[in-house]
Amino acid sequence: MNVLRHRINPKTFVITNRQLAKYLKIATTRIWRWEKWAHVLWVHIQGLGGYFISYRQLEQWIAACSTLIRSCRDLKTLTLVWSAIQRESQRYTEEAILRLSQLHEQRLTKLCHYRECDRLS
């Protein structure tokens, strides 16, 4: 878990009321305010009070994981990142895990191909 937290900075995520309302399945007018905290978003919802949302449940986190996978320059780094994603996979939707898994396979194939090319040269 620390591997991803050290490499992904949720403070850089652009989050909108509309996105939060869609995630929470409520009208945007019910969101009074929200704040970015270290590991979660805090959302004040009219009639419900405070509500916490893990960054890992947002599309921005999945996009950041995708970028991490694509930017791995060697197999060791890819293995480290992928094992961190797998350790916390229960926090993601099935669709997100499928997308990340496909990216991992593509990157693994590409890095293995480069490694073979290096050995042949």
TrEMBL record:
Q: Which domain of life is it from?
A: Bacteria
Q: What is this protein called?
A: Uncharacterized protein
Organism, scientific name? Symplocastrum torsivum CPER-KK1
